[in-house]
């Protein structure tokens, strides 16, 4: 199952509290990607789609899911890059239940280029 279909099936993203906090974050960021500064008004207007990203993931920090300070606006391109980094930085689990360590694998998430300097 793709991440997109998982997200669509997640009732969190259709909840009223999420829709409200998402709209607030987009307004605070003036619909601009916090990585590149591009205006994100959607494909109907010929611009990138706006995505509201959890800086600290919901999986690792569910208590911050609706914290406006844990959210930022990203363009579709930067959001996709961030998602790929998250997926690649997760260790693969072997049949014995332990992580599989592969030589040359990506460094741990704390070197994420999307991470803010004061984020820990």
Mind sketching the topology for me?
Layout: H1 3-9, H2 16-28, E1 50-54, E2 71-75, H3 76-89, E3 92-93, E4 99-100
Antiparallel strand pairs: 1-2, 3-4
Task: Walk me through what this model shows.
The chain has 120 residues and is of the alpha+beta class. It has one domain. 28% of the residues lie in helices and 12% in strands. The chain has helices at 3-9, 16-28, 76-89; strands at residues 50-54, 71-75, 92-93, 99-100. The strands form two sheets. Strands 1-2 form a two-stranded antiparallel ribbon. The protein is globular and about 50 Å long. The two termini are 30 Å apart. The relative contact order is 0.13. The mean pLDDT is 82.
- Average per-residue pLDDT, rounded, comes to 82
Count up the domains: 1
DSSP summary, beta strand count:
4
Give the strand content. 5-15%
Radius of gyration from the alpha-carbon trace, in angstroms: 16 Å
- What count of helical segments does DSSP give? 3
Mass-distribution shape: globular
Question: Could you give a quick summary of the protein structure above?
Answer:
28% of the residues lie in helices and 12% in strands. The chain is α+β, with helices and mostly antiparallel strands.
Please give a handful of descriptors for the protein shown:
120 residues, alpha+beta, two-stranded antiparallel ribbon, 28% helix, globular
């Amino acid at each position: 199952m793709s991440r997109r279909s998982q997200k669509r099936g997640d009732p969190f993203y259709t909840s009223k509290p999420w829709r409200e906090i998402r709209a607030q974050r987009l307004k605070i960021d003036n619909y601009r990607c916090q990585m590149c500064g591009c205006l994100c008004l959607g494909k109907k207007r010929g611009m990138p789609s706006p995505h509201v990203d959890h800086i600290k993931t919901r999986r690792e920090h569910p208590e911050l899911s609706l914290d406006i300070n844990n959210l930022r606006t990203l363009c579709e391109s930067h959001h996709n890059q961030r998602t790929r980094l998250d997926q690649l930085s997760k260790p693969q689990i072997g049949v014995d239940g332990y992580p599989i360590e592969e030589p040359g694998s990506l460094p741990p998430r704390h070197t994420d280029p999307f991470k803010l300097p004061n984020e820990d």
